[in-house]
Design a protein that fits this description.
Layout lengths: L8 E3 L5 E3 L6 E6 L5 E7 L14 E2 H13 L5 H47 L12 H52 L3 H7 L4
Antiparallel strand pairs: 1-2, 3-4, 4-5
Helix pairs in contact: 2-3
Length: 202
């Protein structure tokens, strides 16, 4: 199994030790006489820290195989799982309340603007305003456009908020299901992509 030498470790901005091998991969394409084309991806130490680093290149498939072996050896305790589910619930409660408040405020303001537009129109078309004594054409147009522009912005914000809520729901579902079943998936040594797809409610 691939192992890194200590001199090639350094700290990233978060304070975690990472190896120099964790750099953009090198891709090699091999074309065969029969027309087949194979693409190989290799990772290697850049030797930036230690020019004599003895580690050889490792092919992506082999690196993935080794990573899967490590993942299959992981375990998640019941205590940690229960804590994760409880913490997720508390965080999501706060976020859900925040989402509801944002949507409620914008919807309330849209209703207020609609009423203002209606009142503005009634004033403008009032018999008493036949000569433009209550509100001139220009005043009406400017006031109406200002209100309608604000309403369009709010409606756009609501659409954006709706999309964000959908993503938030999907992430919450995936995180919750991962916390519930990850220990079982790891124990069975299931494929990483299968574990990820199982977290989806779609």
């Amino acid at each position: 199994m691939y192992r890194s030498c200590e001199p090639c470790y350094h700290k990233d901005p978060a304070g975690e030790f990472i190896h120099e091998r964790q750099r953009p991969a090198e891709e090699k394409i091999k074309r065969h006489k029969n027309g087949n084309v194979h693409v190989y991806v290799y990772y290697r130490c850049t030797k930036r820290i230690d020019e004599k680093c003895p580690q050889k290149t490792v092919e992506l498939a082999e690196l993935t195989r080794q990573a899967d072996l490590i993942i299959r050896g992981l375990t998640i305790s019941d205590a940690f799982r229960n804590w994760a589910i409880k913490y997720l619930h508390e965080v999501r409660k706060v976020e859900a309340k925040s989402h509801e408040q944002i949507v409620s405020n914008k919807q309330k303001r849209i209703l207020e603007i609609t009423k203002q537009v209606d009142a503005l129109l009634l004033r403008y078309t009032s018999p008493a305003n036949a000569a433009g004594d209550l509100i001139s054409d220009m005043e009406y147009k400017n006031a109406r456009n200002t209100l309608l522009d604000e309403r369009r912005v709010l409606e756009s914000d609501l659409q954006t908020e709706g999309a964000a809520i959908e993503k938030w729901l999907e992430l919450s579902e995936r995180t919750f299901n991962f916390a519930r079943y990850a220990s079982v998936w790891f124990f069975k040594g299931e494929n990483r992509s299968d574990c990820y797809s199982r977290t989806s409610m779609r």
